[in-house]
Amino acid sequence: MIKILPVIMCGGSGTRVWPESRESLPKQFIPLVGERSTFQTTMAMLADPAFEKPIVISNSDYRFLISDQLRAIGAEADVVLEPSRRDSGPAVAVAAGLAARRAPETIVVVLAADHVVRDRAGLVALCKEAAEAASEGYIVTLGVKPDHPATGYGYLRPGAPLHEGSEVLKLDAFVEKPDRETAQRYIDAGYFWNSGNFIFRADVMQAEIAHFEPTIAEAAEAAIDGAARDLDFCVLNAEAFARAPKKSIDYAVMEKTEKAALIPADIGWSDVGTWRAVWELSERDEKGNSVRGHGVVMDAKNVHVRSEEALTTVVGVDDVIVVTTQDAVLVLNHEHGDRVKHLVDELKTQNRREAAAHKRIFRPWGYYQSIDEGQRYQVKRIVVKPGERLSLQKHFHRAEHWIVVRGTAEVGRDDEVHLVHENESIYLPIGCKHRLINPGKIDLELIEVQTGSYLGEDDIVRFQDVYNRG
């Protein structure tokens, strides 16, 4: 049996399913469908003995989210961090380079962390079959049979089987996203969607990238050569990686190579690219309505409601999606799912914090969440995981009051150390050096009240930090 090295692409920002997915917590880390995130579901699928220990490629912003989600499902991976976002071409070049250093003929499967596959066993079987073709020098993509003329996918024109009786087909043409009329012609002609999942031999992909995009190839190799360890992560060299142009692997290689092949993949695939796709993947009642969280739908059909906290109700309105978060509400007609990304772009032009950040901000030690704020004050809820600690720090413009509501806090304040128990509090004046530690075995929860002339997150000086943050 050919062993396959899985590489999971895990760096996207997922703006098309805002407001649940934002840059601070993108869709691959959210349980959009089911109880696990799509990243966790993908990782769990790779427990099959055909796969080697996976490599996850992401960026520094998500490194601790990745660690937490791996730990939660008992999975392991080598995590490689990109110092800047350069699209999928450089990422695949790095994946091929890392695999080739193990052995040039290593078979690699590149999978997206934010896709859903209903038939996971089917995907594993396809990877094994595609690996045989990849070992012969082909770059195989999984082709999904279209069920509607989508304009957001690339299309694949299949050719003849590689060998008699083979499920793997030659790829006659790789075409980018068409308009609706062209997409329908492609479907009528038997084209497939490009799923964005590829299987290849490491040295073959390296050679094709070097041939078509030598700058990407050189930057990837230099970034690997200059990589450094940071805690449990491999961080690519920033200066070298920045030399790679931003280009997708589709444009960089797949549209040009003569080594492309496809394997038809009837596996219930979705890139979960719109809220309509989430609704389609969700359990629905006889009227087509789906509710996740606190929602009620009356006298309506084909409605998708999502709200983890506030009661959200829909009456007498069909074909809508309503998503309620702590700080934003989206009401969307099914047919306008592709407009959400444009909405987020508009919010960014208005400098709306909600465009990119949730009220709950995750940190390697836990998270904090804004409760209330006004002129010269801010109230936060802080949760620290057992055994974790915040950096030793100070602030120039604010004082803080910490009130413990659950667990026990070990608080360093200048030269003093205090144990603060439930229903107790401690005051941290402006300019004092302080550190918060959870010495217990349960989550530490406290309420922080900040007062001062400036309350921005950048009013911080770190003296020591176990997570190597600046």
UniProtKB/TrEMBL annotation:
Domain Mannose-6-phosphate isomerase type II C-terminal: 350-465
Record flagged with keyword Nucleotidyltransferase: yes
Reaction(s) catalysed (UniProt annotation): alpha-D-mannose 1-phosphate + GTP + H(+) = GDP-alpha-D-mannose + diphosphate
Any Pfam family hit: NTP_transferase
InterPro entries, A to Z: GMPP_N, Man1P_GuaTrfase/Man6P_Isoase, Man6P_isomerase-2_C, ManC/GMP-like_b-helix, Mannose-6P_isomerase_type2, NTP_transferase_dom, Nucleotide-diphossugar_trans, RmlC-like_jellyroll
Enzyme Commission number, as recorded: 2.7.7.13
Enzyme class, first EC level, given as a word: transferase
Keyword vocabulary terms for this entry: GTP-binding, Isomerase, Nucleotide-binding, Nucleotidyltransferase, Transferase
Domain annotation Nucleotidyl transferase: ranges: 6-287
Listed GO MF terms: isomerase activity; nucleotidyltransferase activity
Family assignment from sequence similarity: Belongs to the mannose-6-phosphate isomerase type 2 family.
Protein name per UniProt: mannose-1-phosphate guanylyltransferase
Taxonomic lineage from the root: Bacteria, Pseudomonadati, Pseudomonadota, Alphaproteobacteria, Hyphomicrobiales
